[in-house]
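Project outcomes to date are best conveyed with an example. Our students and postdoctoral researchers have been running inverse folding experiments weekly, and each run begins with a structure described purely in tokens. The record below, which covers 737 residues, was selected by the lab manager from last quarter's runs and is presented without edits.
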């Protein structure tokens, strides 16, 4: 049996020279920038953005520049901590005791209450190899069923929308499309702030493109738009159907593409007929002229790309809204060509890895648990009895927390996510955590809002202290390297999972998973024959040399690029940097989609009202979103940097329109209370015309924000609707600091 001491605590790989520069993919957002990490005596001391990486072209945002800082934070978890039931305090234990308690408690719960009495909540922040190992270990090795990822909070909508429309979760684009569009449409996306390097790619566009922003707020991106459609919050689905109707009425359609490559268009055209310009203008608050200009731009430009992020994904009707965007691309033939595509920009550094390999809502490699053939394939590839693979889906994140609140789930393993802060209506989520009989938190830090509730903390290595791969928004696998020692007894998530397998007694099922590099070979096998096939990627070395590689890349190295077939007989050619075939590839150039009939589907439903409209008591709509490019989600890592802390306000703040501020006699920089039906939060008043009268905006990074939000979910993706709840403002007579 492996002993914790055999897991190479604190070692830096020998192949890194003591004083050298190596490359690693950034561990914050899904852009997937490459960073040159500079080493002294084998340890990372500094970094600079990689000049010749095809994603970031020598640029990095403030978070990337500060990526090493969180590793030295004083609240790092350096050894396992177990809560003493007598004192109620967390006390240090060794890995052996931690693992014995872990297995004893989870096994006892499963024996007594069944395999559905435990669950995990994981993340899009760990490496693909790690999330795949966790999902396989939990379901096939330990025999549990429920597990979900925080990707449910950001990308579940895109996953479901693409899968239903295209037959597979397949973002079609490559970042070069930012530079090749005649018109770029940003929906619910403040790209300037949320994905600043991608915004730089937009600025490199030499075609003088039309830039259209659909967003209730006058965001930094909207300020740079040629058309800003400041629609009423959550009227986007109506707007998109209205635009589709205008495209039909004006014959701005690609009839040949529709007929050869899609199904359901006639029904869709009939469905959107009642969405007349007058009706849509009344619902959205836009003018008929704005609607017409928007539709005309889409209908008459040659290369139109559509980009959406959380303003679409985090909605009560998110999947149908994403599909309404996809429908616009399909009906105008804006897909599969340079500068086109209905393109969802991912959130976390490895959300795409989670969507394909977490083994949570879908079976490994983009398969389905409910499909017997898929289960048989995975069983054969992993040399497992097929009955080890559940023929049932896991509960989704919200359903897991609901089952915790109802006492049905009694044991929870939270990995690299901060549920108590980030989940919608967070006070309710936190209350549920407190009912658990056993809560394990595996994290870099001991002080997260969630770790404070743990019975057991497992100390995890962070980005830079372990190896693996991330998959970015444009489907590019990139190599993440170990450039620093994890502190104390902290282990990589991969090695923690190996340890769990050992102590659980199922390690013989995972003999192929000896290292991230070995697990990558397993991922390749699991991808075989799937749309995300990567059997043509040799290994990490090739990823480094090629500047990352987008999926698919099938074995035999035959693939089509923009209609041209390229065959690489010589594997060495793949090691050349700047191989143009490897750098930028998009899907659907041949018009073939992944449904059995090879066609994409038009999907649609009537718009629905929000469950919590504004009223006399709560007359304002609260919008949420990213505050600055220096902040990452719950600030767990970004708050560790003194540099980043200078780039955003320390206290929660609320943006209020000048009209509302005058009406309510609220002075700038005074403290106001934002009150919803669930909570009351004190915030600094920022009076700004970026929000319209009747709306306020609170950034998502502060722990008060999600105490205010209302737990409503998209019915198809079960993604939370963070972007809309009803609030009021109350004046507080004291000056903010
Ligand atoms: Fe690039 Fe995102 Fe990292 Fe910033 S956070 S450097 S944009 S990958």
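After processing, the design step wrote out the following sequence:
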């Amino acid at each position: 049996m492996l002993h914790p001491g055999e897991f190479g605590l604190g070692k830096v790989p020998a192949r890194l020279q003591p004083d050298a520069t190596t490359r690693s993919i950034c561990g914050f957002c899904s852009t997937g920038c490459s960073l040159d990490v500079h080493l002294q005596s084998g340890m990372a001391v500094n970094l600079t953005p990689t000049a010749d990486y095809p994603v970031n072209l020598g640029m990095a945002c403030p978070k990337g520049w500060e990526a090493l800082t969180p590793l030295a934070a004083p609240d790092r978890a350096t050894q396992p901590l177990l809560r003493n039931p007598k004192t109620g305090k967390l006390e240090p234990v060794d890995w052996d005791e931690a693992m014995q308690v872990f297995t004893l408690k989870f096994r006892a719960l499963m024996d007594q209450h069944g395999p559905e009495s435990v669950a995990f909540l994981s993340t899009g922040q760990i490496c693909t190899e790690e999330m795949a190992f966790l999902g396989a270990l939990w379901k096939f090795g330990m025999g549990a069923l429920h597990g979900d990822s925080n990707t449910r909070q950001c990308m579940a909508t895109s996953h479901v929308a693409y899968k239903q429309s295209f037959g597979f979760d397949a973002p079609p684009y490559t970042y070069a499309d930012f530079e090749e569009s005649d018109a770029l449409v940003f929906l619910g996306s403040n790209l300037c702030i949320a994905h600043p390097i991608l915004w730089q790619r937009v600025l490199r566009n030499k075609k003088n493109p039309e830039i259209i922003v659909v967003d209730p707020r006058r965001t930094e991106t909207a300020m740079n738009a040629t058309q800003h459609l400041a629609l009423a919050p959550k009227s986007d689905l109506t707007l998109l159907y209205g635009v589709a109707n205008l495209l039909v009425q004006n014959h701005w359609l690609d009839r040949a593409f529709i007929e050869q490559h899609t199904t359901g268009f006639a029904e869709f055209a009939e469905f959107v007929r009642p969405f007349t310009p007058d009706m849509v203008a009344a619902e959205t608050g836009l003018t008929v002229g704005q609607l017409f200009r928007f539709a005309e731009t889409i209908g008459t430009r040659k290369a139109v790309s559509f980009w959406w992020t959380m303003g679409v994904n985090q909605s009560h009707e998110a999947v149908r809204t994403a599909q309404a965007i996809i429908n616009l691309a399909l009906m105008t033939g804006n897909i599969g060509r340079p500068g086109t595509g209905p393109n969802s920009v991912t959130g976390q550094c490895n959300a795409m890895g989670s969507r394909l390999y977490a083994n949570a809502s879908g079976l490994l490699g983009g398969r389905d648990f409910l499909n017997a053939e898929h289960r048989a394939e995975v069983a054969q590839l992993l040399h497992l009895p097929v009955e080890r693979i559940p023929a049932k889906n896991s509960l989704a994140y919200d359903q897991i927390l609901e089952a915790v609140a109802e006492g049905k789930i009694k044991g929870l393993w939270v990995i690299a996510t901060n549920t108590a802060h980030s989940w919608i209506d967070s006070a309710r989520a936190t209350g549920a955590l407190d009912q658990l009989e056993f809560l394990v938190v595996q994290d870099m830090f001991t002080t997260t809002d969630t770790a404070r509730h743990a019975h057991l903390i497992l100390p995890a290595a962070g980005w830079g202290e372990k190896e693996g791969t991330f998959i970015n928004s444009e489907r590019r696998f990139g190599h993440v390297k170990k450039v620093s020692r994890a502190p104390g007894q902290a282990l990589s998530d991969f090695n923690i999972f190996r340890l769990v397998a050992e102590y659980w007694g199922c390690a013989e099922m995972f003999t192929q998973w000896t290292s991230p590099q070995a697990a990558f070979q397993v991922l390749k096998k699991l991808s075989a024959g799937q749309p995300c096939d990567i059997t043509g990627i040799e290994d990490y070395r090739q990823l480094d040399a090629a500047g990352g590689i987008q999926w698919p890349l099938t074995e035999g190295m035959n693939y089509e690029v923009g209609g041209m077939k390229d065959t690489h007989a010589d594997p060495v050619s793949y090691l050349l940097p700047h191989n143009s075939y490897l750098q930028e590839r998009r899907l659907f150039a041949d018009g073939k989609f992944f449904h059995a009939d090879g066609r994409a589907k038009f999907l649609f439903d009537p718009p629905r009202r929000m469950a919590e409209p504004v009223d006399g008591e709560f007359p304002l709509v609260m919008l949420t979103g990213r505050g600055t490019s220096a902040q990452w989600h719950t600030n767990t890592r970004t708050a560790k940097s003194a540099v980043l802390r200078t780039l955003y306000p320390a206290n929660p703040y609320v943006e209020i329109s000048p009209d509302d501020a005058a009406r309510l006699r609220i002075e700038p920089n005074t403290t106001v209370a934002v009150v919803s039906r669930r909570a009351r939060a004190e915030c600094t008043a920022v009076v700004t015309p970026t929000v319209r009268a009747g709306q306020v905006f609170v950034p998502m990074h502060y722990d008060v924000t999600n105490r205010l939000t209302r737990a409503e979910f998209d019915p198809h993706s079960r993604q939370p609707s963070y972007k809309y709840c009803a609030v009021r403002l109350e004046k507080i007579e004291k000056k903010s600091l």
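The longest strand covers residues 725-735. Residues 558-579 have pLDDT under 50 and may be disordered. The training component of this project remains on track.
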